[in-house]
């Protein structure tokens, strides 16, 4: 069976988690990475050298690196952060290497390709844009926050929610990103900070339209916890509402992937002290914006509330296995089903042309268009 083309859209830790789980599985992986990081080592290199921020690119490259011993050492090296030294303290070695490769090769794309060869990655890492743009947030009281790090580190006035976000200046899609989206069988949106990791990709010109027009099955991996400066009080429907709004569509996404492993009470208490709480599943409202809700045990063991990469990848591949391989290079044709012997499991919210087999007698039949959607969260 042909390998599925899976495009993961996001940035930061969310992309790293998803990619590190999927890397070992039988699929063709492409990471589409937001280019609005303005804090820490990435922000310093962006400001001082005028480069695109390398941090999220570095994380994705690390996630796609191989299992052999040399790749493991390179992963550790790429993630090494200097703790001393004038000008070095706070920088990741991988960020510095990407910056140096950009200077040596003359462009960010070639630097990413060369870094991928060094790490022996499986898959592709694509910046969503080559435009240097600033992420801006307008709050409901009319005030504005400029820069991804400013939005991400906001600690005051948390009772004032974000109204909307935008890029300044306007950013244009890196063309291979649009090509990857057009050829995708599955597009994964999230997990990750909704306003600073996931949605910035959809603000880049033509990206939201490409995702809307893609024949791929679209999966939103919901965050485990809320974040006080971005998603305080959010339920699953709030995340889905933002995604469909910034995609510019009323068409529901295909799948919501949601963790159903209970979070230990000791972790809940610790995170509550930081203003973070589990995202609640409001099923009825969510099903107005998504075709099917799939609940799986996705929580990683340990002292942090995080997705388990292997469990998350297995759930994504389970959904991918139900979807047909997209036929990108042949004319689209309706799926013709025999209504007298109807057994295939249908994907929710996907239109099918149903054509009964014409019998030998004089009974009359007509063609019909059937849209199938399951109200059972884990049903077929």
Low-confidence stretches: 327-380
Total strands: 13
- Shape call: globular
What fraction, in percent, of the residue positions are helical? Answer: 25-40%
- Strand proportion, as a percent range, falls in 15-25%
Supply Rg. Answer: 22 Å
Helical/strand content category: alpha/beta
Series of secondary-structure elements, N-terminal to C-terminal: EHEHHHHHEEEHEHEHHEHEHHEHEEE
Number of domains: 2
CATH fold category name of the largest domain: Rossmann fold
* CATH structural class of the largest domain: Alpha Beta
The CATH architecture name of the largest domain reads: 3-Layer(aba) Sandwich
CATH superfamily of the largest domain: CofD-like domains
Beginning-to-end CA distance, first to last residue: 22 Å
Strand numbers in spatial order across the main sheet:
3-2-1-7-8-9-10
Protein architecture, described:
The protein is α/β, with parallel strands linked by helices and 380 residues long. It folds into 2 domains: 4-130 and 174-322, Rossmann fold; 336-372, no CATH class. 35% of the residues lie in helices and 18% in strands. The chain has helices at 12-22, 40-49, 55-63, 69-79, 93-105, 108-119, 148-152, 175-182, 194-203, 207-213, 236-247, 265-272, 283-286, 309-322, and strands spanning 4-10, 27-33, 124-127, 134-139, 144-146, 162-168, 186-189, 217-221, 253-259, 290-296, 336-337, 350-354, 368-372. A 7-stranded parallel beta sheet has the order 3-2-1-7-8-9-10, sandwiched between helices. Strand 4 (134-139) and strand 5 (144-146) form a beta hairpin. Helix 5 (93-105) packs across helix 6 (108-119). It is globular and about 55 Å long. It starts with a strand and ends in an 8-residue tail after the last strand.
